């Protein structure tokens, strides 16, 4: 029987002690949590019932469980609370047979020990209270190190990334982040030391470049509670923007957190729909119960088929409280996601063997001109160590319906749009193609396109306050479109399309400029068509690394963009480029039909196999 | 960007018609050989370059092909160079009608009669603002060829290698792409000169004046660069054949095709034995077009042909030793 990887997400246990030291009377929190820091049969039953509900629900197949805990394990970070936290967590890992290396814990703001933090701050007024790390994490660290003793993990006080889980076969990376950077004895908002975080994340992600990434942390990035209507959840706006920006650039797919005690899930983290969308999932509180919150937990099953890699979500809530025959805390019931505004699944990867996986060159009749809306996120100043910052070109002023309409007319008039099967490589195939070579035969059209390209480039230079060091024309088409740019001061060179490299000699494939001293920092590439952008990625990352290693910014201006609408502002291939600022702009957009078959198309595609129509091959088969 | 400046023996020469063929201002780019007016933007560009040049002792501005100028800019520019910056300026091949546009220049005529030379009543071979023996000045044609030869040697690699299109070995490889990328302004000047040759070539001249203008064909990456610039300069259509050289791998073309009866000029970077040109010629003729000739940046005069050809530069018996260029067959090895 195949073992299915299954991830259990719990948060905000708020294990509370009955009486807090120095405080009169009973700890009122204990009235709102089912997990009390005392030797209590109810605690044991609570955990046992939870484990049983997981086992019952997922008994159909053999499971490899992982446990993700997004903070606020203790209610006041006392030693006693953590003593029982270890007891409860040991019970879980034992019942569900979870190896401790598969448990990922991050602290929450309630895991900061405030009394000691205050004392330390008073003793050392020069240092901000939130930087009294030894004091604030004293008890949490004891708990953490004790829990993980057998596996040798310790909590590092000054690290932004607490821990990570890497699943090699599934190419999945969970990154546990400490968002308590600014928490002190007076609490505070979620934050990380952004510079340190960028550095740590960059180093970590270098080892897991092509993994789908999931961020695990405490402070909610969006608010589903009436208490707070802030779009930034429990974060200060600037910190939220900085943090989100880094996660976007590193192409995190899912953010899992807690804090607000209200479970929720969503596809888009607030901003532009469809753009670099990150899923968010709040599991709610595991043990708190009152008028506003119901204990809950989530389970994600990992599904992989030839088309997709997804996490399928299951929501469990505690219900039937007080019902006859049921324990006093109720029982765990699986919920219907749709009825609770929860997502069914999270798509990590779409594994289509699309036509433009390696090198892409699509041509298609044009649609709308590009007109990017303003990216409202704050710009982050990048250093060379920081991974890719994909930027949108805010060039609404360039949206040119006249140019667009003229191009459409030309395409119709000259019959430049061809249906059929077009192959640019074994894994680069499309239906439909637009003949840009023929477009660039007529002097009138050449003039029109050259002028437009120049106009766009000048506008980008003005908006981005940039001067290009070198311009690269891709293919014969790029050479022709770039002619008016030759009179600029920037150096110029040209290269063949990478999927045709075998058809060119070494001199033609040479970029002709040495860049060991970093002389060429800002590069402009002119090309006729971009689909997924993988050919460009191939060029920048694999073919000419000696040159591009020192390049800081790569701007691409394409005549046509023919990929998915969602990726029109930054094709997927370009998003995968690291350590550079990438800007992409296309004069016209229209999606092209992708070949729906995988690399076994020769057997699966009836049209190809039976020679029902001509297949046009634009590459040499080896 | 100045493209035509050549310095010889501390004298800097500028060929202004070439500068006018490529105009790049903030708002506009204009690339055409069919322009005979010297605008302020080019005058300012040249004057700025002269002012910044502290090495040359004299500056020759060749007005060949210039019919008219932006008067104020011309007059003030030249006057400033001479009187304010103390530069030694000589105007070469300048029409009398242009000189007359600048009212103050008549004083120059009066003062420096011996420093003026006339080829014919309407044209000054030189018009000097300084005391200089202008008979020693070289003409641009000689200057260009010498300068081109020197530059070409930088991009020639002595490397015995098999020619990719033909079954011969070459003793050297001329890397036109390196030339283009490292010496862009000079290459633009070279292509301008090629465009001029094409325009005035006796066998082709008539077709430029008709509606049936020739079409430029390019069949390689280097060729596409050259053809695109030529196309802009001459206002000609292009035709791309994907993949005849250097590695011969032709790809199917769906749309554009060779049109019956149309004239096609093949644009090459370096023509050695002419194999790629011949392949292209055969394709053109097979599909019903008319092969009109071949143009290139460099042409090795290996075998005499009767094709209409033009090139920027020729390597032949007279200079092949200078370039150490040899074509070797397997029988010679």
Summarize this structure briefly.
Chain A is of the alpha/beta class and 622 residues long. Chain A has helices at residues 41-57, 79-95, 114-123, 133-136, 138-147, 194-207, 237-249, 401-413, 436-439, 443-464, 475-481, 506-509, 534-543, 545-548, 572-575, 601-604, 606-609, and strands at 4-10, 63-70, 103-106, 161-167, 172-177, 212-216, 252-257, 264-266, 279-282, 296-304, 308-319, 331-334, 345-350, 389-392, 417-425, 428-434, 470-474, 491-495, 522-530, 553-561, 581-589, 593-594, 615-617. In chain A, the strands form four sheets. In chain A, strands 1, 2, 3, 10, 11, 12 and 13 form a seven-stranded mixed beta sheet that branches. A six-stranded mixed beta sheet of chain A has the order 4-5-6-7-9-8, with helices on one face. A six-stranded parallel beta sheet of chain A has the order 14-21-20-19-17-18.
Describe the structure.
Chain A is of the alpha/beta class. Chain A has 17 helices and 23 strands. In chain A, the strands form 4 sheets. In chain A, strands 1, 2, 3, 10, 11, 12 and 13 form a 7-stranded mixed sheet that branches. Chain B is α/β, with parallel strands linked by helices. In chain B, strand 1 and strand 2 (11-15) form a beta hairpin. In chain B, helix 7 packs across helix 8 (184-200). The N and C termini of chain B lie far apart (47 Å). The mean pLDDT of chain B is 83. The chains are: A alpha/beta (622), B alpha/beta (333).
């Amino acid at each position: 029987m195949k073992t299915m990887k299954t991830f259990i997400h719990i948060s905000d246990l708020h294990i509370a002690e009955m009486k807090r030291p120095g405080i009169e009377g009973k700890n009122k929190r204990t009235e709102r949590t089912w997990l009390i820091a005392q030797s209590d049969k109810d605690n044991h039953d609570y955990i046992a019932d939870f484990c049983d509900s997981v086992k019952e629900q997922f008994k159909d197949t053999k499971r490899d469980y992982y446990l993700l805990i997004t903070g606020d394990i203790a209610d006041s970070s006392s030693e006693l609370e953590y003593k029982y936290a270890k007891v409860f967590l040991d019970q879980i890992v034992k019942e569900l047979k979870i190896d401790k290396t598969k448990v990922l814990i991050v602290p929450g703001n309630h895991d900061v020990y405030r009394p000691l933090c205050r004392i330390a701050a008073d003793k050392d007024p020069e240092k901000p209270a939130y930087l009294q790390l030894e004091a604030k994490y004293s008890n949490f660290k004891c708990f953490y190190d004790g829990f993980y003793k057998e596996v040798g993990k310790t909590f590092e006080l000054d690290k932004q990334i607490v821990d990570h889980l890497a699943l090699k076969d599934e190419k999945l990376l969970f990154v546990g982040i400490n968002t308590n950077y600014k928490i002190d004895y007076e609490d505070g908002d979620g934050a990380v030391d952004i510079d340190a975080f960028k550095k740590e994340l960059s180093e970590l992600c270098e080892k897991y470049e092509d993994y789908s990434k999931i961020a695990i942390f405490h402070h909610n990035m969006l608010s589903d509670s009436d208490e707070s209507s802030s779009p930034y959840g429990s974060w200060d706006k600037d910190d939220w923007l900085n943090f989100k920006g880094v996660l976007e650039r590193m192409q995190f797919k899912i953010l899992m957190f807690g804090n607000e005690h209200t479970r929720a899930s969503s596809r888009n983290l607030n901003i532009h729909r469809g753009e670099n969308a990150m899923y968010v999932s709040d599991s709610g509180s595991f043990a708190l119960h009152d008028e506003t919150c119901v204990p809950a937990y989530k389970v994600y099953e990992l599904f992989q088929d030839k088309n997709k890699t997804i996490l399928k979500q299951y929501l469990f809530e505690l219900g039937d409280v007080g019902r006859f025959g049921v324990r006093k805390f109720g029982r765990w019931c699986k919920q219907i996601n749709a009825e609770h505004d929860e997502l069914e699944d999270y798509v990590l990867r779409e594994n289509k063997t699309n036509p433009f996986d390696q090198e892409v060159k699509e041509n298609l009749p044009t649609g709308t001109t590009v007109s990017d809306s303003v990216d409202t996120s704050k710009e982050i100043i990048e250093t060379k160590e920081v991974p890719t910052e994909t930027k949108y070109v805010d060039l609404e002023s360039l949206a040119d319906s006249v140019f667009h309409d003229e191009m459409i007319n030309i395409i119709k008039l000259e019959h430049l749009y061809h249906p059929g099967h077009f192959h640019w490589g074994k894994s680069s195939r499309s239906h439909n193609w637009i003949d840009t070579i023929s477009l660039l035969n007529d002097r009138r059209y050449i003039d029109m396109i050259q002028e437009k390209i120049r106009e766009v480039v000048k506008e980008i230079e003005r908006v981005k306050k940039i001067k290009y060091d070198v311009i690269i024309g891709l293919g014969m088409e790029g050479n022709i479109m770039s002619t008016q740019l030759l009179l600029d001061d920037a150096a110029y060179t040209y290269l063949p399309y990478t999927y045709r490299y075998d058809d060119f000699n070494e001199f033609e494939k040479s970029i002709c400029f040495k860049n060991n001293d970093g002389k060429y920092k800002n590069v402009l590439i002119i090309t006729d068509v971009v689909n997924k952008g993988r050919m460009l990625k191939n060029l920048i990352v694999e073919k000419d690394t000696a040159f591009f290693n020192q390049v800081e910014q790569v701007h691409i201006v394409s005549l046509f963009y023919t990929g998915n609408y969602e990726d029109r502002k930054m094709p997927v291939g370009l998003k995968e480029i690291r350590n550079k600022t990438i800007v992409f702009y296309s004069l016209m957009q229209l999606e092209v039909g992708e070949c729906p078959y995988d690399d076994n198309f020769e057997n699966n595609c009836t049209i190809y196999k039976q020679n029902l129509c001509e297949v046009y091959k634009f590459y040499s088969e080896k | 960007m100045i493209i035509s400046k050549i310095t010889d023996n501390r004298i800097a020469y500028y060929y202004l018609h070439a500068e006018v063929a490529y105009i790049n201002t903030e708002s506009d780019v204009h690339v055409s050989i069919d322009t005979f007016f010297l605008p302020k933007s080019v005058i300012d560009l040249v004057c700025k370059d002269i002012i910044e040049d502290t090495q040359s002792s004299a500056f020759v501005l060749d007005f060949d092909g210039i019919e008219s100028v932006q008067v104020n800019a011309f007059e003030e520019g030249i006057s400033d160079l001479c009187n304010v910056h103390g530069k030694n300026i000589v105007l070469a091949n300048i029409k009398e009608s242009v000189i007359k546009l600048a009212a103050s220049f008549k004083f120059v005529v009066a003062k420096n009669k011996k420093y003026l030379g006339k080829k014919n009543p309407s044209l000054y071979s030189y018009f000097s603002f300084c005391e200089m023996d202008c008979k020693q000045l070289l003409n641009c044609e000689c200057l260009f060829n010498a300068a081109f030869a020197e530059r070409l040697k930088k991009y020639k690699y002595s490397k015995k290698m098999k020619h990719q299109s033909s079954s011969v070995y070459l003793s050297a490889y001329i890397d036109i792409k390196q030339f283009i990328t490292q010496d862009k302004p000079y290459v633009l000047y070279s292509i301008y000169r090629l465009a001029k040759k094409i325009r005035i070539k006796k066998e082709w001249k008539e077709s430029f004046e008709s509606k049936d203008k020739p079409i430029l064909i390019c069949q390689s990456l280097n060729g596409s660069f050259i053809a695109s610039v030529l196309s802009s300069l001459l206002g000609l259509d292009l035709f791309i054949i994907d993949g005849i050289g250097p590695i011969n791998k032709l790809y199917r073309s769906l749309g554009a095709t060779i049109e019956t009866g149309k004239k096609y000029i093949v644009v090459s970077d370096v023509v050695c034995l002419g194999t790629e040109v011949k392949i292209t010629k055969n394709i053109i003729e097979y599909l019903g077009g008319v092969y009109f000739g071949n143009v290139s940046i460099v042409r090795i005069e290996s075998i005499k042909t009767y094709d209409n050809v033009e090139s920027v530069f020729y390597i032949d018996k007279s200079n092949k030793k200078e370039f150490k260029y040899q074509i070797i067959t397997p029988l010679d090895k």
